[in-house]
Design goal:
By secondary structure, the chain is mainly α. The chain has one domain (3-125, 139-298): Orthogonal Bundle (ABC transporter involved in vitamin B12 uptake, BtuC), CATH 1.10.3470. It has 17 helices and 2 strands. It has a two-stranded antiparallel ribbon. The longest helix has 25 residues, at 191-215. The N and C termini lie far apart (63 Å).
Length: 309
């Protein structure tokens, strides 16, 4: 009997908990970026491409420099660059947010696949884990409490953004532009500038999610590394009602669903493995169905979201 089987169903609980922390980090960072973007009244469906470009650029820079933190900076900068392109596109008259987002998704994904061909096999230095389980002699618990530094950063960003939206002039400007751009313009605010900054910063935060994927978990660069997490994060923002702290909780739920199949396999339950692997996608569909009611969808939604203003 191996260690995973010896602790029985507690191993499943620990596996799901570890998955919530590790697998939920990309969801967290991308959803925070999308939350910031949507708070300004715009939608960015291209964050899947941003996630892939962030993962590829972080891995490439870490490989060549030998410093994973330079890779994190590269992912942040790559995300900001793609965000700037998206922001310029949607600022043009009669440009549809959804169409521009899909175009950026295809552009970002294609560019990542093209530039990342030579980095599929090489091994790049990884981000150091924050070990919080040294007090325990149980290997499973020690493994579950190894945190990504980007998860800690994301959790801090969730509370920081929540405070900024409610207590700072900048946050109130973003909310004003997202709720009533005409009124914000009448008060002397530059709607285009506020939205530009929100979109660029939101995309840069999403790029950090890619750095987590390639430099921590799973810790390699492949073309299938994101598994649609950038798109699922849009549903996560709706589920979280456009509240950054709720994005933290929701991302852990989404991350935990990814870990159900591996956790069950660890104790010898292999039937339905691929069905359990579909849990995050099923959860995304459930969220979209539950929130399809006009009253529920608009609860907490920025007033100008999805409009051409």
């Amino acid at each position: 009997m191996n260690a995973s089987e010896s602790i029985g169903w507690w191993g499943v609980v620990l596996g799901i908990f570890a998955g919530a922390l590790r697998g939920g980090t990309p969801f967290l960072l991308v959803s925070l970026g999308e939350c910031l973007t949507e708070k300004s009244g715009k939608i960015n469906l291209g964050l899947e491409g941003t996630l892939l470009m962030g993962a590829m650029s972080a891995y490439a820079v870490s490989y060549h420099s030998g410093n994973p933190w330079l890779g994190v900076i590269a992912a942040f900068g790559t995300g900001a660059g793609l965000g700037a392109i998206h922001a310029l596109l949607v600022s043009r008259p009669k440009v549809n947010d959804v169409a521009a987002g899909i175009a950026m998704l295809i552009f970002g994904s294609g560019l990542a696949f093209y530039l990342g061909k030579s980095y599929i096999r090489p091994s790049a230095p990884q981000l150091p884990a924050l070990s919080l389980g040294g007090w325990s002699e149980l290997p499973q618990l020690q493994a579950a409490l190894k945190l990504s530094p980007l998860f800690v950063l994301g959790a801090g960003l969730a509370f920081l953004l929540s405070w900024a939206f409610n207590c700072t002039r900048w946050g109130l400007r973003v909310r004003a532009v997202g709720d009533a751009p005409v009124a914000a313009l009448a008060l002397g605010m530059s709607v285009k500038k506020v939205r530009f900054v929100a979109i660029v910063l939101g995309s840069a935060i999403a790029g950090l999610g890619g750095a987590h994927l390639s430099l921590f978990y799973p810790g390699a660069w492949t073309e299938a590394i994101s598994s649609g997490q950038g798109l699922m994060a849009v549903a996560l923002v709706i589920f979280a009602r456009w509240r950054p702290v709720h994005c933290l909780y929701a991302s852990m739920i989404f991350g935990g669903t990814q870990a159900i199949a591996p956790a069950l396999q660890a104790i010898g339950i292999t039937s339905g493995y691929y069905l359990w692997n579909a849990a995050p996608y099923v959860l995304t569909l459930v969220v979209m169905v539950i929130t399809c009611s006009p009253k529920r969808t608009l609860a907490g939604s920025p007033g100008a979201l999805g409009t051409s203003s």
